[in-house]
Amino acid sequence: MIFYFSATGNSQYAAEKIAEATGDRLVSIGQALRDGLFDYTITSDAHIIFAIPTFAYTLPGAVALFIHKLKLTGYAGQPAYGVFTCGASSGSESAAMRVLLEEKSIGYNGSFDLVMPDNFIVWSNIPAPARLETMLNTADRALADIIAVITAKKDGTIGSGMPKDLYMPLDEVSTKKNTSKLYATDACTACGLCMDICPMRCIQADEAGHPVWEGTCTVCLACLHRCPAAAIQFGKETLGKTRYVNPRVKLD
After folding, report:
1. How far apart are CA 98 and CA 118, in angstroms?
2. Is residue 194 within a helix (H) or strand (E), and if so which, with residue range?
């Protein structure tokens, strides 16, 4: 079973490629969080794989929340791995994953870093198209190597010790109280896509149908990158910056 969390398609792409090779079932963590689905049954020949992005060199808060609530029926020592999409390195994410899985009495066979375009444009910029193509081609080759290790049931990298942060903290945000850095500009068409895809259901509609952020946010930036009108901003940090979705996947 492959659990994936993906805002712009990088981790979804990795999950789908792994599933093609292993035959494992795909489960969207974002959808599971939205729908409150945490109980799963796995077969004896299945893998347990988390294909997820790196947030601040550790796990996304939404993923940690999902693992805390996860109930696996049929677990009997099936190999468990992390495949972490990242801009450069996953940092302490493997150690954090090991700790959280140990809390669920699930063994851990290690992780693999999969370098892909960094979409956290609060701190960075999206590379030029030619560079993006090169990065995605390189990621494809790295992913093939990762799949070969997983199907051979060999170990990946297992982080040691207790990481400083088990996950990137979830933010309590409020447009009404002016504590949310996420906002929609006048370019917003009130299409509702941002509300539909938010894994935390923290985006609501105002009286005109435009989004307001109220509740717990994991700062995945799915709303910002996937807005068809490029109307969503994060403070001043994202003004004028290119948005990104993985061009090789059909997003959920």
Report:
1. 24
2. helix 193-197
d(CA 66, CA 251): 20
List pLDDT tens digits, range 73-114: 999 999 999 999 999 999 999 999 999 999 999 999 999 999
CA distances, 30 to each of 6, 33, 65, 108, 132 (Å): 8, 5, 11, 22, 25
Alpha helices in the chain (DSSP H): 10-22, 29-35, 61-69, 93-103, 129-151, 193-197, 222-226
Q: Cβ contacts of residue 159 below 8 Å, gap of 6+?
A: 92, 93, 94, 95, 96, 97, 98, 111
Q: Which of 84, 64, 61, 80 is nearest to 72 (CA)?
A: 80
The residue written with tokens 């207790």 in the block is 162
Q: Token pair of 43, please? A: 């077969």
- The three-state secondary structure class of 252 is coil
Alpha-carbon distance of 169 to 96, in angstroms, equals 13
pTM of the model as a whole:
0.96
> What are the phi and psi torsion angles at 209 (to 5°)?
85, 5
Helices and strands (H, E) in the chain, number of each type: 7, 12
> Between vectors from CA 87 to CA 83 and to CA 89, what angle results, nearest 5°?
60
CA distance 234 to 121: 9
Q: Which two tokens stand for residue 214?
A: 């109220």
Bridge-based pairing of strands 39-41 and 71-73 is: parallel
Residues sharing a CB contact under 8 Å with residue 113, sequence separation 6 or more, in sequence order: 84, 86, 89, 90, 157
- Per residue in 171-209, pLDDT tens? 999 999 999 999 999 999 999 999 999 999 999 999 999
